[in-house]
Amino acid sequence: MIGIKINGKKIEVREQKSILSAALEAGVYIPHLCYHPQVGSSTEIISVELAYRNGLPHHGDQGAPFQGCNLCLVEIDGREGLLQSCKTMPEEGMSISTASEVLGKAREENIARIFETHIHACVVCDKASGCDRKCCSLHVPEIERCCGRFGNCELQKVAEFIGIKNGLPTYTPPLKVPFIDEEPLIKRDYELCIGCLRCVRICREIMGADALCFTVQDGRVVVGSKGPTLKESGCHFCGFCVEVCPTGALTDRDFSTGKRVAQLVPCRSQCPAEIDVPRYVRFIAEGKFAEAIAVIRERVPFPSVLGRVCFRPCETVCRRGNLDQPVAICALKRTAAGLDELPYLQLPGKEKTGRKVAVIGSGPAGLTAAYYLNMLGHSVTVFESLKEAGGMLRVGIPAYRLNRQTLDREIRDIEEMGVEIRTGCPVTSLDKLLADGFQAVFVATGAHKGVNLGIPGQDAEGVLEGVAFLRKASEDDLEAVGDRVAVIGGGNVALDAARTAIRLGGRDVTIFYRRTRDEMPAYNEEIEAALEEGVKIEYQVSPKSIEKMEDGLNVLFARMEMGNLDESGRRRPVPIEGSEYTLPFDAVITAIGQNSEVPEGVVIASNVARKRLAVELESAKGVFVGGDLLTGPRTVIDAIAGGRQAASLIDKFLGGDGDISQYFTYLQTDRPLAAVQTAYVDQARALMPMLPVDERIINFYEVNCGYDRQTAVAEAKRCLGCDLRFQIKPAVMPPERYLILAQENIQDITQEGGVYTLYDARKEVYKIIGAENLRQALLEECAAEGGAQYFDYENDPMFTTKEKQLLQEYMEKRGVMPRGNDELDDLL
Known about the structure:
By secondary structure, this protein is an alpha/beta fold.
């Protein structure tokens, strides 16, 4: 540490820091644009001969050193001229000045040069505050108006701090380079680039991609990529360059105003259970499977099950999909669970509360709620009417998708943590449970009841309901279904029923769906797997009646055409007149929807059903509902989210704070910013190993075999690490010029002479006036409660002269006096 003075104030700084870094750490702002706390100064970077913009080559001078923005100038006692503080190191006893008339003039000239090739009309417009740049009241051509970052632009704020007293030259575009819109994920508008090289340096120094560069043409910095496209340049699409760009030159593609983190890390925000996807994928990329599964278990109690049956909303929005294919997030979850060698993690120190909770239903919602309530110290008993626990996980999802050993193991883990599960124990009365000493009841009985077709013959012998069919198949309670099987429906239950029928001996299994393939709600991979296994699908066909025959069933079908939109937003299928035809079948399986059997005493208001994941019933105090019973048939991850929400609500009801968060591993806030990826840009998504088709259709063995360790690590390295950009330090912005006009902001102001400026709610100048005692004058303005809400000030013993100077500048720009100077206006 060495001692220096900045503006007369003694401070201690580290010897190896530049004066700029030292001043900013000490709270002294020096204007700058090329410096950023993440990359420091720019002393060692030189130009290349070729840089690409919009795929076009731009040749320039090679080997030219970067000169910087020249805004961070300071004066140092004993040294001649103005020095760049970003490149000057402090020395013991050095006395530095960061503000003077000479410095102000030099900075204004230097920032004016930057604005020569950057649109700036709004920066110097006195009507800019609160304006609509699309409808300019001064009729400035739109090409000369500032970009969408105006009001939140670092360049603008630095310019305001420096102060533009002499106007700016008319904007002339530096190059006729069209706005780039073909690159994935990142937009580059080179007309807004000021050549600060922050993007070049963070790409090289922090990410290590080195995809960006600069050349020099006619003394002007030209930034571009090393190849015609970002992908060809080796870009990692991490977004670091966007984070440090001081203008609107680099922005995120397809980004809309809203929650920025949620939009830029969509895999995490779109997960109903809010699993920290990037965090566990990064652990897998590092080969740390135990840590990865610990992250998943922070949010869900059965990761191995979820890694097999989740419908993967995270993958739908994965930003890697804009480059080639999404990361196989769900498959990685399964692999991490399979390779984890640690016992189930449990946080210590959760004392028993003495509160008892009953959970009705051992499906994903019920077991999740039970797990978290037990974790919070409550005694939990799960009541299940079936002979085995698992609910729809066991009887609704076939074993070829979810093997029973995996399900049994994760249910057993929950039991070993203290949750009691009573199978074969239906609940007939909620009142009796409450009378037996349970202070709260969570009802999560699922949606086990099928929907009728509503056609003649729907109850004929040989017509099976889809959910009941899958339950009997899971319980080994089915004989062969016959050779010819029709499945009516287009959802996952229909696909599961068809694939199960194949495994039970069906030789000719056909799904009939009344809409098109594009509108089929089943998962696409399930459709493809069914087709591989021999299932046929007939689209735009609907049954009209079923007739029982001696040797089976005859089904009358009608072909459909797509009509007007219905309440679901899809086009309504309409029968085509005269298109009827009949087909014979040995069995017909109906799978057009599911309903819940609402237990006696449970009344769900129509205004909350399907809109919440869990809710407390108004009809019975201490009774909560969730899962498919509340929302209707949804997915396993939705049910888990409902169970989490229910656990939080019930804990609050029982006197807790409802906090079910838990962390089994460190949050990696201090990890290196560079992700673990190396050469991953063109790496294809890993294929899921699967049983051969001829082996699948003769048994219920699990079809997907899962990744091995090496494949999982390679697939995890495809992750772009979208969350890492939020660890980048923010740029040091100029201090806000305005203070709120309030006593607490005036108490420490000097009582010497000076000039203060008052601003209205829109931060437009309201009054400019000098005073012998700044503090006293401002306190009087504060008490007056006029039209001013903000103020700034400067000390000046010649305050009357300074006042006249500021008023004259104001009047030259606007042609009138400030509103608050009316009396002075009359006097003049």
